[in-house]
Design a protein that fits this description.
Layout lengths: L1 E3 L1 E2 L3 E2 L8 E2 L3 E7 L4 E4 H4 L1 E2 L3 E5 L6 E4 L2 E3 L4 E2 L7 E9 L6 E10 L3 E8 L13 E7 L5 E7 L4 E9 L9 E9 L2 E9 L15 E9 L13 E9 L21 E7 L2 E2 L5 E3 L1 H8 L10 E6 L5 E5 L3 E7 L6 E8 L6 E10 L5 E9 L2 E6 L2 E7 L9 E6 L2 E6 L2 E6 L5 E5 L6 E4 L5 E5 L3 E7 L3 E4 L10 E9 L6 E11 L7 E2 L8 E4 L4 E2 L4 E2 L4 E4 L13 E14 L11 E5 L6 E7 L4 E9 L6 E11 L11 E6 L2 E9 L2 E8 L2 E9 L11 E4 L3 E6 L4 E6 L6 E5 L1 H4 L12 E3 L8 E5 L3 E10 L2 E11 L5 E6 L3 E8 L2 E8 L7 E5 L6 E2 L5 E3 L6 E6 L4 E6 L5 H4 E6 L11 E6 L2 E7 L4 E16 ...
Parallel strand pairs: 1-28, 2-32, 3-32, 5-42, 44-78, 48-52, 80-119, 105-110
Antiparallel strand pairs: 4-7, 6-40, 8-41, 9-40, 10-39, 11-39, 12-13, 13-14, 14-15, 16-17, 17-18, 18-19, 20-21, 21-22, 22-23, 22-24, 25-26, 26-27, 27-28, 29-30, 30-31, 31-32, 33-34, 34-35, 35-36, 37-38, 38-39, 41-42, 43-46, 45-76, 47-77, 48-76, 48-120, 49-50, 50-51, 51-52, 53-54, 54-55, 55-56, 57-58, ...
Keywords: Membrane, Signal, Transmembrane, Transmembrane helix
């Protein structure tokens, strides 16, 4: 198979290198004695490329770890007389390629050739190898050269050598051969001479490579892992790189094009004398289907993979992926990967990335002369521009999971494989040879004097373990220095304090939760980093009536953890539940609760939960089925997952079998089983662990862990036993008890509990490639209860033996150096018996039952944080459950976790946030846009500790995008929707007095009405545009005739009702039109265009009586100097105003306005430039124009025009013009208005906001004053209507702004946090403004008066539509408003909805009305009142309300008693973790109303 590599990335790194920048200016660390921790430099402190890190030299608490950092000290070699080091190799497992920590290198000097070796412990990969042992290969003779070596076994080494044939002085050929040395017996070696298969001597070469591998060939489908029934053969591959042979001519960049890859068989401790297979251009031609006489083969490198794939780099033709499928050794071509360029490749590497879910991603890198390309699963991910050109034989490239190492001559460059960002440059000339661990970020290098080992990383700040506390806080400076420019440095202040292990005091952190400005609605604010301490609880200071807060109309809500009320279902009694589990799938706001009762029936409930209604979850019965056995949770003998509406579950039904079923709506179907021979008691499954991909079955008597696939046909794919583990030099006996594995995160990691150890390893499985790598053996107490909780980068081991409790955390981010970080603090708690533990498989958070002697609690520990804050929450149960009493719990989830607790008396579901969140929402009737707020949070934990208060001033911008339904109005039936009992359809006006906020969708649901009740929003589509299937980029109203639209090559005319009239093609095929405008007198239609030569200009149609539009014969005229026309206005029949700017990238082109005049006759026209409004015109060094509008007025019967335009960075300019005798503009003067510095308590502009569009709403002369009201839109702030008065007493010398009269009239609130698109449409008091989040477009239509109200008023849009939109913004869609003279509301025409049938975004027509309408049919049989639900939504919130259809007005009934409601169902639910909800200033009353009357207990712990 041949495949050209798909290129989807661009060159990166060296071209777009980033200087350093800080993430946090200050960082506080509250360490505890005897703990260590590492912080990722690029996650917590710095961004940028090629950075080196350092901290004050006198800092005893921290050390910095650079991205390429030496582990330990260099280890000198045993022999000081080492000569040239030819090659360095690691002993790798033939099953998986993992390093086993044995190394050899080949050394040659003037007197002899030696193999130096270092034998290490595979579990001590962080130790530098000691090359203190050597084996003499040969005392050198004349011209005897050895090129390479490799491991045959862990003690047999093969060396490839060469010597000239001194007897053949004419041809001077070379003898080749292999020497095998025994590291265990230095006196024993074997020599295997080679004979060329064609009978002639070998040629000379400067370099040669060998690689050895044990191959297994499958003989049956049942044995794909190379076990019973597989043929096995040991093969050695050898090749000379095409640049190194005597046939290469590097001076002319010519490679040897007739290379060979030889394959020798190794058996009975001997190599075959001739190759048993070889690859030449002849074999390649047969595989590729080409002509062997023209085929070339320039081998540069090759690589053998554990699964037997053979990757061969041809320097001119790409990468060949080959394989042998049997001992016949016939070449099979799996894939041919062609180069994307016509150029030579200098090197390559291939590697497998093992993902967190156990799957494998294929990575490959190709090095060319000046670039390197990185590929993921055959697709180019990114390119790197090389720091210097590559040279043959002087480039080395290797990958290690997430890192890419490139060695050019003596310099080592480190890149990240996610994006190609450059992490580090190592310039020390330290390595004669280096190798990279393919599975771990581990680099080993040697030179003539010593060995060196390096850790590859993003860079770390490492906390050194302290054995005592310190005296208060110490301050240090952490620096990042750019290695590309050492003058570039950024710094972070690090404060550190070392605490006692049981210190529970609260200390202030460096992070402050409140931003200076906050737009509402906004994403919640994480507040967990504002303080350090265990079991932190958060309350709004308003709840405590803090004196600094005063009065406010802003609601602050803090969410941390709370009890959930499960609405819509009825659980079995707590004492009836014998097994429970919680499952959170990809939908994070939904969870499934599974319970089993003694009758063996399993009930599954589906619950949805929204943080906006945090204490309620809406649940329903999802499924129920009978299992056949009672689940034993201690044996982990049950596993389940959900796909769509089907449950798949596995359970152990006997000691020798496991059943797999699916259930859909109670319909149970057997899928299969795993079964072993039950007649042999040795086969007994003593423990079973199931995850989604594999089933781990422990056979303790056999001392084996069997691994089965968890999908059909449930094959046995691997066994872990003493034989597999022996090469890892394990301590003690391997007697497996239980397997632990995370169901979701890092699912390939396996933790095996044995008698006295926990074995940590990694299992991977591909077709024909299954393997287990052991990383660490951790001692445990024999006979203890053991639980393991596995997170993303850390895991916990919890042990309990009698009164001894051990709770340890380990870091395994770099798996070759798993290390203990700390013992978890228990403070004043002790674990209860039996050990009751669960954890969230997504986050690794540990939940463990404990007691303080007064009540049972659940301790919740967060992984990967310092000891002082790792006890994240103490969840109280409000009861004391003594040891050995039943207590069950289940946990799952990510940022929001859901936990089920059951003590056999009560059971409850709790929601816990990984990071406490603070929400800010305006009070119901607040209309102000800008609100100055003083707010605060109190942090507390245990009784007796002093709480910490944080108070801050925040500017809250209320966009009014929050939607609220006035439920009290609907519940009291003061607001009902009147209907008539009739069969016919009726329309019921809903009004807008029952909700507020920027809704873009409304839905109704009625159990009584079913589909007979529908709703129509206050903006709805009336035409779908199917009659105009064109690629329309712009549109404009064409007088009273209708609308006209622009496509690339035509004008599209539409009548006044929105129906297609005609299409007029543009005759010039060299131009591509974009924008369209109509002259003020409707006599000209002007289209902007771009030619194939990137020239821009204007194409004109002349029209008569709103019809009969004809192109001028010349068609168009280019506008000299213009690069991008973004707007054209023709305010009369003479002048044309053109804006040259690029609204998608303002800095990409010069920005200016061209004021031009139009002259024409019957056949042609000319556009002549009169003025250019640019930075010289206004006297500004940087003018970037966003938009303009034109004002026409008369002063003393003389006509004037003012062009008002936006400077996107600063505000507005007014440019005033008079007319000359020919009706052409003549210049007077201009004036700037710096809106960025304008002040008003309802005016706020973000620092990074742009001023976009300007629209004149009204203008009039009042005496000698020109009064103008205009609208300015912004990119990411509100939009503003201003009133300006201009002094028109001396118009010939200018119209200066009367600054004292400048007023802010209206604030148009934006759509939440979305940015506005640089576009608007306006008609008679209505303006449409589009917004986007780069995935969707929302168009909001505002009612905007053109007056000056005296007091600033806030307006939110009342009509809104949305669509998924994936084309370029802002110019690629049309949007216009039209309005009939007698109509109250306008029509909106736009094309933001994609139509699959026409493959176009069609122009649709929308009608606006005052309010939504209910559409009701078949209501004759209804009762007097019918209840239904209302749903309103936008992209930030969805709310629902309960409303009534009524035939008459009703008297409001007495409000329901909250106490009755609060005790009606789940009376036993108590609030177990505090959270604060308050209206600042009146918070106490609000909290009482919301919670105090429901009998909810606060948490004290």
């Amino acid at each position: 198979m041949k495949s050209a590599i798909l290129i989807i990335a661009v060159m990166s790194s060296a071209i777009l290198a980033q200087k350093c920048d800080t993430i946090n200016q200050h960082y506080n660390v509250y360490a505890t004695v005897n703990e260590t921790k590492e912080w990722d430099m690029r996650k917590y402190f710095f961004t940028g490329e090629n950075l080196k890190f350092k901290i004050n030299n006198d800092c005893p608490y921290f050390e910095t770890v650079d991205p390429l950092s030496e582990i330990g000290d260099p280890v000198p070699h045993g022999d000081p007389s080492i000569g040239n080091i030819q090659n360095l190799k690691a002993y790798r497992s033939f099953d998986n390629g993992a390093w086993l920590n044995d190394f050899v290198f080949l050394e040659q000097n003037k007197t002899d050739i030696d193999v130096f070796y270092a034998l290490g412990d595979p579990q001590k990969m962080d130790q530098v190898p000691r090359f203190h042992a050597q084996v003499n290969v040969r005392n050198s003779t004349v011209s005897f050269i050895c090129h390479d070596l490799d491991f045959l076994t862990n003690y047999l080494i093969v060396i490839d050598c060469q010597q000239p044939d001194l007897d053949d002085v004419v041809h001077l050929g070379y003898h080749n051969g292999f020497i095998v040395v025994d590291l265990q017996d230095s006196q024993h070696y074997d020599i295997s001479p080679n004979e060329h298969p064609k009978g002639f001597n070998y040629n000379y070469t400067e370099d040669r490579k060998i690689a050895f591998h044990n191959f297994s060939f499958t003989t049956s489908e049942e044995d794909l892992e190379g076990g019973v029934g597989a043929d096995k053969i040991s093969l050695l591959f050898r090749a000379e790189p095409a640049w190194a042979t005597e046939f290469a001519d590097l001076g002319n960049d010519k490679l040897d094009e007739d290379c060979e890859l030889e394959v020798y068989k190794y058996s009975n401790k001997k190599f075959s004398s001739t190759p048993v297979a070889y690859l030449t251009k002849v074999e390649l031609a047969a595989l590729l289907g080409t002509n062997s006489t023209t085929q070339k083969f320039a081998i540069m490198d090759f690589q053998l993979e554990p699964n037997g794939d053979i990757y061969v780099l041809d320097g001119e033709n790409g990468v060949y992926v080959l394989q042998f499928t049997s001992q016949a050794l016939e070449w099979k071509l799996k894939e041919h990967i062609s180069f994307p360029y016509v150029t030579k490749s200098y090197g390559f590497d291939f590697n497998y990335l093992i993902n967190n879910d156990g799957t494998i991603t294929r990575h490959m890198v190709l090095v060319f002369k000046d670039k390197a390309n990185f590929y993921e699963n055959g697709v180019m991910k990114f390119g790197i521009k090389l720091p210097e050109n590559a040279n043959y034989g002087r480039v080395q490239v290797q990958m290690s999971q997430y890192y890419l190492i490139l060695k050019l001559d003596t310099v080592v460059h480190v890149y990240h494989s996610d994006d190609g960002s450059k992490l580090y440059t190592y310039t020390n000339d330290l390595f004669d040879q280096l190798i990279i661990n393919p599975y771990e970020p581990d680099l080993l290098g040697v030179n003539k004097n010593s060995a060196h080992r390096f850790l590859i990383s993003n860079g770390y700040l490492r906390l050194k373990k302290q054995d005592s506390t310190n005296d208060g806080t110490k301050t240090y400076t952490l620096d990042a220095i750019s290695l590309d420019d050492v003058s570039q440095k950024c710094s972070v202040t690090v404060n550190v304090r070392v605490l006692n292990k049981n210190d529970t005091k609260i200390y202030e952190q460096s992070n402050h939760p409140f931003p200076q400005t906050l737009r509402v609605p906004t994403a919640p604010i994480g507040i967990d980093l504002i303080a350090s301490g265990p079991n932190l609880q958060y309350s709004s200071l308003a709840t405590l009536e803090h004196p600094e807060l005063g009065n406010s109309k802003i609601i602050v809500t803090i969410k941390s953890a709370w009890n959930l009320q499960l609405n819509g279902i009825r659980l079995p009694d707590a004492k009836e539940v014998i097994y429970s589990d919680i499952l959170v799938t990809d939908n994070s706001d939904q969870f499934y609760l599974l319970v089993q009762i003694p009758t063996k029936i399993i009930y599954v409930y589906q619950c949805k939960h929204s943080l906006s209604d945090h204490e309620n979850a809406e649940c329903k019965d999802f499924d129920n089925f009978s299992l056949g056995v009672q689940i034993n949770k201690n044996k982990h003998s049950f596993f389940w997952w959900i796909y769509i509406n089907s449950i798949t579950y596995m359970y152990q039904d006997t000691d020798y079998s496991i059943q797999i079923y699916t259930s859909t709506g109670g319909q149970v179907k057997s899928v299969g089983q795993v079964a072993v021979d039950s007649t042999d008691p040795m086969n007994k499954f003593t423990s079973v662990t199931m995850v989604k991909s594999f089933i781990y079955c422990v056979q303790e008597d056999r001392k084996t862990v069997q691994i089965y696939e968890a999908t059909l046909p449930f094959r046995l794919v691997y066994e872990i036993n003493s034989s597999v583990l022996s090469e890892y030099k394990i301590e003690g006996y391997f007697i497996p008890k239980r397997v632990f594995s995370n169901k979701k995160a890092r699912a390939q990691l396996v933790f095996i509990q044995s008698l006295n150890h926990v074995y940590v390893g990694e299992f991977t499985n591909q077709k024909s490639f299954s393997t287990f790598i052991l990383f660490k053996q951790i001692p445990i107490n024999g006979g203890a209860e053991v639980e393991v909780a596995i997170g993303q980068d850390h895991f916990f081991i919890v042990q309990q033996l009698n009164d001894l409790t051990v709770m340890e955390e380990y870091n395994y981010q770099h798996i070759q150096r798993i290390y203990k970080t700390k013992d978890l603090p228990l403070f004043n708690y002790r674990l209860q018996k039996p050990l009751t533990v669960d954890y969230s498989s997504q986050t690794g958070w540990l939940f463990v039952r404990a007691t303080d002697g007064k009540e049972t609690v659940v301790l919740v520990y967060e992984p990967g944080v310092v000891s002082h804050i790792c006890l994240h929450k103490v969840l109280e149960t409000k009861a004391m459950d003594f040891d050995n009493k039943t207590f069950d719990m289940a946990v799952d989830g990510g940022q929001q976790m859901f936990s089920y607790f059951n003590n056999n008396t009560i059971h409850r579901v709790v929601s816990i946030l990984a990071d406490a969140e603070l929400y800010i929402t305006p009070e119901l009737e607040t209309q102000q846009y800008v609100n100055e707020l003083t707010t605060g949070v109190q942090v507390s934990n245990f009784p007796g500790n002093t709480p910490m208060n944080l108070v801050s001033k925040v500017t809250v911008l209320n966009t009014q995008s929050d939607i609220n339904i006035k439920q009290s109005l609907l519940t009291s039936k003061k607001k009902v929707f009147k209907f008539v009992k009739q069969a016919q359809q009726q329309f019921i006006d809903m009004g807008t007095d029952w909700y507020y906020g920027q809704q873009v969708g409304i839905v109704v649901r009625c159990d009584t009405c079913k589909s007979d009740l529908k709703v129509r929003n206050n903006i709805y589509r009336v035409l779908d545009g199917a009659d105009m299937p064109f690629d329309i980029s712009d549109g404009v109203q064409f007088g009273t005739a209708g609308q006209v639209y622009q496509t690339r090559d035509a004008l599209i005319f539409q009548d006044i009702t929105g129906k297609f009239k005609e299409r007029k093609e543009i005759s010039d095929r060299t131009i591509s039109c974009e924008l369209i405008t109509v002259s003020a007198d409707n006599n000209f239609i002007l289209s902007s265009y771009t030619t194939t030569k990137n020239e821009v200009g204007i194409f004109i149609n002349q029209c008569t009586n709103l019809a009969n539009c004809q192109q001028f014969k010349q068609g168009s005229q280019s506008i000299g100097g213009a690069k991008k026309i973004s707007k054209v206005v023709m305010p009369d029949n003479k002048n044309i105003i053109i804006l040259n700017t690029d609204p998608e990238n303002f800095s990409s082109t010069d920005s200016y306005i061209i004021v031009s005049a139009l002259d024409y006759d019957q056949s042609k026209f000319t556009i002549s430039n009169k003025f250019t409004i640019n930075d010289q015109y206004v006297g500004s060094k940087l003018l970037q124009i966003g938009d303009f509008d034109v004002i026409k007025y008369q002063i003393n019967s003389v006509n004037y025009n003012t062009i008002v335009f936006t400077d996107i960075n600063n505000g507005l300019y007014f440019a005033h013009f008079a007319y000359d005798a020919q009706g052409v503009y003549s210049k007077t003067i201009n004036e700037q208005v710096k809106l960025r510095s304008f002040t008003n308590d309802q005016y706020h502009i973000a620092d990074d906001a742009f001023f976009y569009q300007v629209k004149v709403l009204s203008s009039q002369m009042s005496g000698t004053t020109l009064q103008i009201n205009l609208l300015i839109t912004t990119s990411n702030s509100a939009h503003y209507s201003f009133g300006f008065d201009l002094d028109a007493s001396k118009p010939s010398s200018g119209l200066p702004i009367i600054k004292a009269n400048t007023v802010l009239n209206y604030v148009l609130t934006p759509y939440g946090s979305w940015n506005a698109i640089d576009k608007l449409a306006y008609v008679n008091g209505f303006v449409a403004i589009p917004y986007s989040n780069e995935k969707k477009v929302v168009i909001g239509v505002y009612d905007i008066p053109n007056d000056r109200p005296g007091v600033v008023k806030t307006i939110s849009f009342k009509h809104g539509i949305w669509a998924d939109y994936h084309k370029a913004l802002p110019i690629d869609f049309a949007m216009l408003l039209t309005k009939d003279a007698q109509a109250k509301y306008p029509y909106l025409y736009t094309n933001i909805n994609y139509d699959a049938l026409s493959d176009e975004y069609l122009i649709e027509k929308y009608e606006l009305r005052a309010d939504p309408q209910l559409i009701l049919t078949n209501s004759a049989g209804y009762t007097e009142q019918v209840q239904f639900k209302l749903y309103l939504h936008n992209d930030f919130v969805e709310v629902q309300g309960l409303a009534y259809l009524s035939t008459t007005d009703t008297n409001p009934p007495k409000p329901p008693d909250d106490d009755d409601k609060g005790s009606s169902n789940w009376w036993w639910i108590t609030l177990i973790v505090i959270f604060g909800v308050a209206i600042l200033g009146v918070g106490g009353w609000f909290a009482y109303q919301k919670f105090g009357r429901k009998g909810v207990d606060p948490l004290l712990g």
